[in-house]
Specification:
Length: 412
């Protein structure tokens, strides 16, 4: 991280600008620089030039990378993952193909609860190593920061174990990690039929400990008929807020029971999924400036409709795109694939998509000041792509188009 790195000969550099989330027409505004160069000093961007000019201190760079005319963007930010989990759930697919729904599998003790069992059984080191391999893969795909939720422990010790794995990853892995405590992911079997008591326990015991020990920056709840209703979600989020945590909510993934309106009411940082969101819900998000974190990989994997992204943009809601990487509803961590889906399934423009996987995603995780755009003073996180432009990145799918990934001025 120390010293200077120069990336020269960039055919086109494309980036959103500023440190704030961008909604409406601003979502589609990107800066495009031709024949550009970026100089990074001690991990931060010192100067960006275009038109074939080189930065003032280019000659002092200890490392020079020639992009050979390729396309460069900021490092991608994945604003919604469930990174740390035990086992997999490949056994659910035959059930799904026979017609069992996500909620039916969950109610029969499978789904999230099956992963809870496997995560409780897994040791710290096993979870740490498995998540490290996931992060390595994400980084190779161009993701330089990611949010990661707990929520597969659902008791004090196992939630803390997941969050401590995230803490160790944050200290040791190049990818920036933003940890979220998702204690309200499902009602564990010890509290079957007693969700209010479970929320009570979480609010009394786990949330205060998590906040005091800085194990998470956000809290998140699965607000859905099969998980927590609006009242329970409000209680959990209000408690998180009182302990200084930022608010996130899994809303309207399966049915619109009011989670989106709750996000608006509580001015949550983000509302996520939003597959079934109605006009009222979108209006609430627009009014509160909450980032809509859309997860098209989950629509694909659950065989559901796609969130009304265009309508959200029309209403001025800042839209981010993320993977939702988890062992049930989206076992893929490939944010490039999500870019393809944003283009083809949501009908977003390449510029809107770049904003969605960089600055809007960064703002959804409270990092708008330091990452998400390529500008002087921000972290030197960037990707050199096997492409000439964003349109080609949106169009080609199934290959890893990241040629080189630079994290805080180092080639990773
Ligand atoms: O975002 N919906 C809740 N949580 C995850 C799925 C978790 C799982 O199925 O293991 C989601 O889709
Ligand atoms: Fe999720």
């Amino acid at each position: 991280m120390s010293g200077r790195m120069l990336v020269k000969n960039i055919g086109m550099l494309q980036t959103a600008t500023g440190s704030s989330k961008r909604g409406g027409s601003a979502q589609g505004e990107n800066l495009k620089l031709r024949n550009a160069a970026v100089l990074i000093e001690d991990g931060l961007i010192e100067e960006i030039t275009d038109g074939g000019e080189l930065p003032k201190h280019a000659g002092e760079a200890g490392l020079v990378l020639d992009a050979e005319g390729s396309f460069v963007t900021p490092g991608l930010v994945d604003a919604h993952t469930h990174l740390v989990f035990g086992g997999y759930r490949q056994n659910e697919i035959p059930l799904k193909l026979k017609g069992a729904s996500y909620v039916e599998i969950l109610k029969a003790g499978g789904g999230i609860l099956d992963t809870v069992k496997k995560t409780r059984e897994a040791g710290f080191d096993e979870l740490y190593e498995k998540s490290t391999a996931f992060l390595d893969e994400m980084l190779a795909l161009g993701v330089t920061a990611c949010e990661a939720k707990s929520g597969y422990g659902l008791d004090f010790d196992s939630e803390v174990k997941q969050l401590k794995v995230l803490g160790k990853l944050a200290a040791e892995h190049p990818v920036d990690i933003i940890p979220t405590y998702m204690g309200a992911h499902a009602v564990p079997w010890e509290y079957k039929g007693r969700p209010d008591e479970y929320i009570g326990m979480v609010c009394e015991k786990v949330l205060p400990y998590v906040a005091e020990n800085r194990l998470a920056e956000y809290c998140d709840v699965f607000c859905e008929d099969s998980a927590f209703n609006v009242e329970q979600s409000r209680r959990y989020l209000a408690c998180g807020k009182s302990h200084g945590l930022g608010l996130k909510i899994h809303a309207d993934e399966i049915e619109a029971i009011g989670g989106t309106k709750l996000a608006g009411e509580l001015e949550a940082a983000s509302a996520e999924h939003l597959i079934a969101t109605d006009e009222g819900g979108m209006g609430a998000l627009a009014a509160s400036g909450t980032v809509a974190v859309l997860l098209p990989g989950t629509s694909f994997y659950l065989g559901k409709q796609y969130a009304p992204a265009r309508r959200m943009i029309e209403l001025g809601v800042p839209v981010a795109l993320a993977t939702d990487f988890n062992p049930g509803s989206c076992p893929s961590l490939n944010l490039q694939l999500i870019i393809n889906m944003g283009y083809l399934k949501y009908g977003m423009t390449p510029e809107e998509i770049l904003t969605a996987v960089t600055i809007n995603a960064a703002c959804a995780v409270g990092r708008g000041e330091s990452i998400g755009t390529l500008e002087k003073g921000k972290q030197g996180d960037l990707v050199i792509w096997d492409s000439k432009d964003m349109e080609t990145l949106c169009y080609r799918f199934g290959s890893n188009l990241a040629l080189q990934v630079i994290k805080k001025g180092e080639l990773v």
